[in-house]
Input
Amino acid sequence: MSVIGSLIFCTDCGNLLRESTGNADAILHCDVCGTRNKDTIPQTTVSESKPSAFPSALRAKRSAVQTLSAEDRKTEAIIDRTCNECGRKEMFYTTVQLRSADEGSTVFYRCVCGFKETSNN
Output
């Protein structure tokens, strides 16, 4: 008789036997070949593996995705645009896709004086 975890197999034909009773004196009969097998106390086998042991395309994509915090998204570029409030020649801007993909993005302008303005492309 072979035991793998809590599964018990017939020693002659390899058929899966009925579940263990937990009594070492019990006899389990094979339904296929009729061999009598001694029962064993069920054993639980626990194994652990590293995620790298089973490579997958999905796992590779998940690790390639970068998570950004709110602080990381606060990136602004500088553009030559005159502020309507203070007359400064440079303003900060960011672009965000707020509408559907086939429409233009929204541009947010910000000046150091606190003036803000938006424009839809």
Notes: The chain has two domains: 1-45, 70-120.
